[in-house]
Amino acid sequence: MANKKVALLVAAALIIGALAGGAISGNLRNDQNSEETETTKSDEETQETEEKETEETETEEAATQDSETQEADAQEEDAADDEAEKEVKKEKKDRSGLEKLEVDKPYTVKTDEGSYTFTIHSVYRTDWMSDDKNEVLVLSYEVENIDYDPDNGSLLMLNANTFHMEDADGNEFEAWDSTMSENGFPDFVEAGEKKEQEQPYVALKGTKEVDIIYQEQGEEKAVLTLEVQDSKEEK
After folding, report:
1. Among 139, 176, 161, which Cα is nearest to 214's?
2. In this structure, what are the phi and psi dihedrals at residue 107, rounded to the nearest 5 degrees?
3. 63 to each of 37, 71, 176, how far by Cα in Å?
4. Which of 91, 187, 179 is nearest to 137 (CA)?
5. Could you give the count of Cα atoms lying within 13 Å of 171 in the half-sphere of its Cβ?
6. In this structure, are residues 226 and 210 in contact, taking their beta carbons and an 8 Å threshold?
């Protein structure tokens, strides 16, 4: 009987020990799983942080690159503008050897086909063009055809092909293709006629002084330097 009780007690002890061991093992597994979960979570958070930092770094680098690109483009545009401005400005030609014209004094031209005179009055600025960089200047002059009457029937006309206009920096101004002059565009002058003429040019805004160069068949003959008047009536 005593041996039976002892056996029961031993069996009970074994069962209790087994249960206790299982509980301890379960707790260890739970602790291990918890540690693995926390480690995984920590790794994921670390990875997310690194990815976020990488993304922010790439964004900053892209923004810096865009800024540098824009700055480089702006510098290239400025350089192009400077180069364009240099191209516009030419070296002023030496015309000291040409005849000197005078304001309101007739200049006589004699040819084998006859002779004529022209008289330059002034150059004045207008408001005919609305532009930030350019304005229209008008050359006012008179043409008198004394007896110029070529056999080939050609008529006398002095215009922008005859009178070239340049500023003090040597920039040559082109003829303007429109006019609001009461005289209209330069016209033919027949033998025995005298006409007031006006030739418009597109000039750089604010031009204060110009050279008028008279040419015959493309060859420069005479020159006159004029201050630009603010209106036609100014004298």
Report:
1. 161
2. -115, 120
3. 38, 12, 48
4. 179
5. 19
6. yes
Pick from 132, 122, 191, 108: nearest CA to 156? 191
Q: Cα–Cα–Cα angle for 192, 196, 199, nearest 5°?
A: 125
Q: Mean pLDDT score of the chain, rounded to an integer? A: 81
Helix (H) or strand (E) holding 216: strand 209-216
**Tokens for 223?**
């020159």
The tens digit of pLDDT for each residue in 12-21 reads: 556 555 555 5
Alpha helices by DSSP H, 95-231? none
Classify residue 232 by its DSSP letter.
S
Q: What is the per-residue pLDDT for 134?
A: 96
Q: How far apart are CA 24 and CA 207, in angstroms?
A: 102
- Identity of residue 188: F
pLDDT tens profile 79-94: 665 554 554 455 678 8
